[in-house]
Amino acid sequence: MQEKKEKKSFERSGSTRKQIRFDDDLVEAIDIDRSNQAFSEWVKDACWTKLSKTVKND
């Protein structure tokens, strides 16, 4: 795990900015699936869905 960094005064509490790289074909598939949903919202929903399946299987 990465070290936690101090947040600047203007940053939102309760969330952390992460920069990740996506394969081009994955972004294209997400864009097709998400329709009017924001990209970040779609990714967060996908992460929660994956995590809920992981928790149920443990």
UniProtKB/TrEMBL annotation:
Organism in which the protein naturally occurs: Paraglaciecola agarilytica NO2
Protein's name according to its UniProt entry: DUF3950 domain-containing protein
